[in-house]
Protein 1
Amino acid sequence: MSELHAAIETHGLVKNYDKVEALRGVDLMVNVGEMFALLGPNGAGKTTLFSILATLRKPTAGSATVLGRDVVRERSAVRQHMGIVFQEPALEQKLSVRDNLLLMGLFYGLGLKAARARTGEILENLGLTDIATRQAQKLSGGQKRKLELARSMVPNPDILFLDEATLGLDVDARRSFWAQVRQFVRSGRTVFFTTHYMEEAEVADRIALIDKGQIIALGKPSELKQRIGGGVILLATEDDPRAFTWLTEQGYKPEKSERGILLVSAEPAAILPTLLTSMPVKTLRAEVHEPSLEDVFLTLTGKALDSSEAMPAKPAFTIGAAA
Amino acid sequence: MRGLLAVIALDLKRLWTDRVRLIVGLIQPLLYLFVLGSGLGANSLMGGGRYLAYIYPGVLGLSLLFTSVFAAMLIVFDRQVGFLKAILVAPVPRPAIGKVLSGAIQALVPAVVLLVFMPLLGIHPSYLRFLGLLGAMAMAAITFSALGVATAARFKSTTVFPIISNAVLLPMFFLSGALYPLADVPHWLKILAHFDPVAYAVDLMRGALLGTLFFPLWLSIGVLAGFIIVLTWLATRVFASGEDA
């Protein structure tokens, strides 16, 4: 492990489902000890890539290794060293918290005594001791996710895969979940995750944006934002379609978003006054903010991420009342 | 090996938390034995008592068949809710084998409970015959469980699986000679029975208990062993293909 630099490495990874190309030659390297996020809209290939790395699917072509082991040929060895939290609950709802962990220990080949010891250790570390005897089905959403994380920790993994692991959780529960994940990363281990929430992706060391089965951008969050440069103007008008058409006619490249019209510009503060005075429709609200990952994705692909619940970037300034 | 034991332990733990399933599993065979058996037996040339004893191995077969196949439905449920992924990503070699064995054990529990009714039916087997019956029951349970696991592994919906299984299981049961001697049925029915694993399992149990066999002993054991190997291999392949299945 000490000489290994790549926790994950893929070369020309292709996955086809009949005639659908879910992955079209993905090349990726995730370093050991890195917190790595994979972002993309529904159908971009995120789940397929995740499933291949997690040894749940086989690629049609290309290769992938996790911790230096091939995900197809050395599947069992990969599984010994990874922990996974799925988007769906992977708990036996009628069993207690303790029994869920204990059984997972047995699944990973621990003897009963060792599994009991490991279960006690994890319950203690993740603060689950008080609810150890409670049935999984009687836990709150946050507690269930914590138990999922605890389950993934049973094999004492070197790499943790998280697939939309905090979907549907409230802010506090998400914060608590990520605090545990960060503790895991601090011990020099790797986390590979997909998420819906932009502010969660921001904490990643590096992010890969995936669309139509290909990695379209990869880098640190700050690097990705710098790629589109300047800033973003968000406009809410009385007639957005008309404003959109007008902006296009004027040579701008507006993008539609759920919150209004987005306009990426090298100098947003400079062009905003002109826009406000020249546009043929009344502006209800105008915001200027630094580019978010959402904006990066929008600029690169012309479409939005699945971020209906994403927190918008904090505007540098706002003009007008809330629309 | 530990991984396989874990798969079995998980399912048995689940069975223990869902004891209603155990009790309900006993109702159907008891109805067949005492209600259908008494009704048909009253008009049978064998006489009521002898008829009940005759169908008793068939009722054991019924219990084993339905319990083991419906135990496999947990696989479909687990796939639907996402729990199966946790099993698939664990480094358990061939979890399908664990599923086959756990299904067989789950099926044997109510079947063993049914054994207490033997004296009521006037069946008093020797120790040797009793051991033979237990062996035949175990073989039948593993065959039916393998059938259930191999089928369930391919299903994604808990709604469709029971409908399909019922449509297949009942004809298999009725064809098996569980309720009537295969020796006396029309020729075409005899031919069909040769393709039905339930017929071999019931015949094996009846042979062990009552000493009468329709199929040669070696053929029944060979056919059931063949079914176990092929079905378990098929199930293992489906499990190994993970989410690609």
Protein 2
Amino acid sequence: MAVISVRNLKKTYVLGDIQVHALRGVNVEVGAGEFVTVTGPSGSGKSTFMHIVGCLDKPTSGQYVLDGQDVSKMSGDDLARVRNLRIGFVFQGFNLLSRTSALDNVELPLLYNRNGLKLKERHIRAREALDMVGLLERAHHHPNQLSGGQQQRVAIARALINRPSILLADEPTGNLDSRTSIEVMEVFQRLNVERGITVILITHEHDIAEYGTRMIAFRDGVIVSDTPILKRRTASEEIKHLPPVGVVTIMNGTETASATS
Amino acid sequence: MSILMTIRVAFKALGRNKMRTALTMLGMIIGVAAVIAMIALGRGATDSIETQIKAAGTNLIYVSAGNFMQGGVRMGSGASARLTVDDANALREIQGVQYLSINVNTRAQIISGNQNWQSRIQGVEPDLPNIRVWPVDKGQFFSAQDVATASKVAVFGATVAEQLFGEGVDPVGQIVRIKNQPFKVVGVMGRKGQSSGGFEDQDDSVMVPYTTAQKKLMGQQHINQVMISAASAGEVASVAGRITEVMRVRHQIFSGDSDDFTVRTMEEMAAMRTETIKTMSALLAGIAAVSLLVGGIGIMNIMLVSVTERTREIGLRMAIGARSRDVLLQFLVEAVVLSLFGGMIGIAIGFGISQGITMFLTWPTQMSSDAVLLAFGFAAFTGIFFGFYPATKAAQLDPIDALRFE
């Protein structure tokens, strides 16, 4: 069953006298449990696609059905509700509230959930979510006490707290080094494989895209390729083969040394 | 999001930047404290005047010679020679006049042994203690007989007794000299304190029969003032009217011409003073209100900065499910929390200031619950009014743009 079904999606921005056609008719279906990576150069329309799929923006024309519900004509308040309950966002810049504990950051979406969970229940769910990303022992740390990778994992926990249908990640590894990127991708893969959470992930790094099950490439507002990934990379395996942190530093040091000599 | 949760979120947000929160509140605190202190001061002054008037007796009527409004040479009130003992005796017959005392004033040196003291000498009649509601403390007041015979007897005010004989000494029966004539002290008045004007020590005076004052001390025939007490407070206005009529007939003033005397009731004087104080306190409260306004603008300023600074946070909140109205409410509640907290601290400080004024300057102040409510309400209103624009700005942000904001 398709979680996301997009039909002839178009988006046109008007900037003064110029019309910018960001999306020129996109058709795609994403099934439950898929791990879709979206690639494309900047200006290809992948971000616009993401915003519409994430219900942050409305299409100029076309239809978008999420979980069997047409969301393309919804009002602002209804879209906010959809974002709250069905979509989990992960951003490049983490977007955690500063001077706020990891636990409170993770709980944030529950505050906008109209089911009105009690304080205790909220704490329990936030702890569950932090446990899923392996950061339970850091629950009371503030963002500035966490590494970039840990911050991104807190952001993933925040995205998971309302048990959404899809996890939308917009260049989640853009601010991370390659080792931490693999660690973060391991979390996404685990959530996808073990819990069957649908993931849509934007990236412009080709190797990051290979962690998914299916790759979609955008160019000039249309999908130019949509292929299953046959040789899927497995982050958990790769971590095992990574040298320990200390060795990496020394290796980098020798590399720099050899480059300058 | 429930309102309770919104308030919690607001507290958390304000707690993240304590220094700025404190400084923003300071504007509100100063404004509210100033308003509270000024109102307390104004109320206190009005109240103390009212109590003093009540203590002095509200049914008091003063008739003075002379009038400021007379053309030609203008004499000060009471300086004109046209108020006579006969006038006073005519007034005694008026219906509703309960007590009456002629009053002539001078100043003189009073000598007792090696001590001397200058004071006000009041020539009066035995009804004066009844009119002024001023009991005799030691000895007794002089009698009608003393007035008739112009005997040299004196009743001291408490201050005079203290200055000449020392504290705690009973001067009754002692002989003092006023303008080189021996006077026997027959009584000492109880302590009355400052006059309602606040500048004059009412206990610094000596009372002698008015006949004695006229003949032995001043050598004058006319009188300066007649003090009258109406039978009841309700009759004051009608009695004052009758007094004016009788006086106009006696002084042969044609209708249309202005009086050559002044009839004043205590209520009029009180009303005049209260009016002055009300104007003053309204002025002060106005100035204080301006500082409250400035405090409000400070809140708006900070909230606007805060909205810009937290654009990404707003974007994020919208992305994870906050509706426009949730964001609006959040910033509005933050502004209101700022102003209400500032208001509460301001009320406490204003209370402290008015207590301090009473303690160190001995000015009367009075806190009233409606002033507190007013300040609190104004603080809340300021918060909503000045918080609304920044909150609207926050709520109207586009989540995509907000998330991209650097």
Protein 3
Amino acid sequence: MSGSSRRTASLYLLLCLILLLPQLVIFASWLSPNLAIWQHLTSTVLSTYLLNSLLLAGGTGLLSLLLGGSLAYLVARYQFYGRQWLSWALMLPLAMPAYIIAYSYAGLLDVAGPLQSALRELTGWRYQDYWFPPIRSLGGAIVVLSLVLYPYVYLLARQAFSSQNPAWQEAAQSLGGRHYLWRVALPLARPALLGGVALVMMEAFADYGTVAYFGVPVLTTGIFRVWFGMGALDAAAQLSALLCSLVVGLVLLEVWQRRQQRFFDRSSGSRRMPLQRLSRRRSLLVCCYLSLVLTLGFLLPAGALTVWAISASDSWQQLAFADLLTNSLLLATASAGLVVLVALVLVYGLRQRPGHLLHAVLHHLLRISSFGYAVPGTVIAIGVLWPFSQLEQAVDVLAEQWFGVRTGLFFTGTVLALLFAYLIRFLAVAVQPLEAALGQIPPSMDQAARSLGCNGWQVWWRVHRPLLTGPVCIAALLVFVDVLKELPATLLLRPFNFDTLAVRTFELASDEQLAAAAAPALIIVLAGILPLIWLNHTVQRSGHAGH
Amino acid sequence: MKFSTLVAGLSLGWLSALQAAEVNVYSARQQELIKPLLDKFTASSGVKVNLITGKPDELLTRIRQEGRNSPADVLISTDVGRLYRAKQQGLLQPVESTLLTSQIPAQYRDPAKLWFGLTMRARPILYVPGKVDPAELSTIENLADAKWRGRICIRSSDNVYNQSMVAGMIATIGADATAKWAADFAKNFAQPPKGGDRDQVKAAAAGVCDIAIANTYYLAAMLEDPADKAAASSVKVFWPNQQDRGAHVNISGAAVLKHAPNQAQAKQLLEYMVGAEAQQWYATANHEYPVLASVPVSPVLQGFGPFKADTLSLDKLGELNQQALMLMDQAGWK
């Protein structure tokens, strides 16, 4: 191994260590397991927690795959009524925090909600005279989470479907194959589809707000029950480590499966796939399906929020909207930049062929360093707080002894700690699209550029950069919107007199003032929509430029 | 800018930073329920208040991690269990104040002067008139009777108010009796526990159950909320255990932290909070029972009638919280 590659490898090793620090802190809790509490958990509720967590993540993953995959395929392949605006409007649910849509649907569909009340009034039935799907249940949580999480699959899959070479379809047809979708399009889009599903499942594993509100006992609610109720932070960290291992196992399984197949488009000229025209009836049908998903995932809950926000308009003046919005936007922008930058460095590290042992080890470290996404934000926050406050105290003691000054909380008392926590938590969101995109660039393309006299930097600038513009925008947007919605880590790590929209929304909602919480919730949604529109333009432009 | 003005400006800024009195508050009461009061304190005392709100155990963890660097002066908690935890973890320091000890009744403050109660919230039985005859009601223990099968709404045992209530029962009737009670009580639920306190009242109003358990604080807020008024009006308050230990109450309180950099201001803030103005604000704006006996409760709370409150040592609630939760796990109370 050459000196420079060794230097690169050690830099990567350092990066991995920093990124894995919070997770290491969590896993280190197993050094002294809290046996009394584990005995209690295994004999009572642990199996329920595990089963429900798996069902929740599996169900949400499957439903999101079905929704996101089908929507992406329809949009990428067919021309139908309203395609132009539906294709971007379908991303809108992304701007809706899961716990907010949960509040809205619970408000609408609960026994005491307007729908069932009207039903009872109309028919004269009483409670239990009729069956109504219970919204506050595991099934309800799966549906509600899928409605806001399917855009991860949709976004990644749409990109993959629409960049597929039309020559493949022609080839498939010329070979008499009728099942282009099943035999060609889906297998080719598999990395993108599964990448999206992996994100959805991790988010479902880490969800706390929705399941807590719906009363579904899962691992995350168990973590907080043990921590808050039993006052056992160590056992809570041990449960978090269990949750994290589950996800590591699932994702490694997916990676291993993906390694069985590797495919690069070696065709020279690439054309854009022409959109297929649909008959009037089918066109209308497709339009209805897309509109229905959009209505359930966005229009209906946003409408409910608007009505509530107006009904509680007298509470608006108490909210310092301008400050909240500025704080939220600054945090979201700064972390989007930071996370995408680190993610780029990471995926290029993953692109190195694992030959040397160090590289192989590094490869796996890089792979697991983005698993913070599956860990509840609060747990990440503790993982960030612990090592850094130890460091701060050591520095403080030394500074006082030597210079007579106190350094205090120079990291955890500032937004820096928050940005670091976001980096750990959302790295996966940026890594997935970037890795999928980089995987589409065959190494032969680099070699060709090098043979034409480009150096490493020029290869990147002239070959990779144009191909990565779209995915980078997607990654940045996903992180931006996620940070805008992020609650638990923000709540725990924010400095004095610093609130965000999500924090205010949560505080009002946790005091059961749902109507008053609607206004800040709506602003989160609006603030997330604008960059979505911008993203759509950029991706489409770069899509055209790339061809 | 001339160098001298710059220096003058800087040193002025430095001086004013030295002089400006500040107090740093970590509050488990959310902003809406504490900021107006802190603003009043700043207006009357000139002391600036810096605020971080959050969940109680998260704040405690943060303070513990920050250690000697922690800027936190005052911890404000919504339940006594967390004040007890802070005390157990050695995070608090005693406050010597004759004002605090003379104003707050002894059962609502820590004997070692480590924490002080500010307000109370009670947890009565709410029943639907017509479906339940109040003569059938007596104690919380009685709700385990088979005649209430499928008729009771209560929120998840994740909630600290339920944990405190059960901890209080363990302290008075013992763990075995409470375990048996919890198992029977859980069988009487009309639906798996879900939602918050308000949702239990709404469910009772919608006919899901005949009895709901919820805090007075939420019921009073619902009565003032146009959207929830109808539901809240359809239930009535019954004060349980009036012949024996009294109805379960939990207190919200405050404490000064061990590493507090601004101890004088912290004490000043605590003393302000038991003053008539602050107590009045808690009572009227927020429908809590003030600890100051001379301050009247809000008209809505007056409508719930007077009651005898459980005088169990509040430390006990904190001490037994973990046991209460394990007991509810075993009883299948989600």
